[in-house]
Amino acid sequence: MNKFLELISAGKEKIYEQRAKSLARQAEGEQKKLINNLESKLEEKNLQICDLTDLGPESNTSLRPGKPGWSAAEWVDQLQTAKCEKKEIEEQLKIAKETYKEYFSEAKENK
């Protein structure tokens, strides 16, 4: 049987199965993409916090912390904001991983 004949004679079960598999692959790929994006954002936030907490003098002859014009109020605000954003990203990532496990992991048979 040629391919065209297979296509026009395919039963609805076969068509549904093909579409379901395609949709499942697409949804799983999007969930993986979400997890990857959140992991990248989390790493960026960790680097931002590292930068904010690097308060060492710029030279061994200076006692001035960090950069010229450093402001304690700005530093506290930026650090607080970064840490809150990090917690939010961590929570989103946790939920995304739970969703992946719930919807895309193979079901285990009860033994």
Outline the structure in words:
The structure is a single chain. The protein is mainly α and 111 residues long. It has a domain of 75 residues. It has 3 helices and no strands. It is rod-shaped, with a radius of gyration of 26 Å.
In short:
The chain is mostly helical.
Residue stretches low in confidence (pLDDT < 50, at least 5 long) are: none
Major sheet details: none
Helix and strand composition category: mainly alpha
SSE order: HHH
So what's the overall shape? rod-shaped
- Mean pLDDT over the residues: 88
Question: What count of helical segments does DSSP give?
Answer: 3
State the total count of DSSP E strands: 0
- Rg, alpha carbons: 26 Å
Helix content: over 70%
Q: What percent strand?
A: under 5%
- Termini distance? 43 Å
Keywords:
about 110 residues; mainly alpha; 3 helices; about 75% helix; rod-shaped
Task: Summarize the topology.
Blueprint: H1 3-9, H2 12-53, H3 72-104
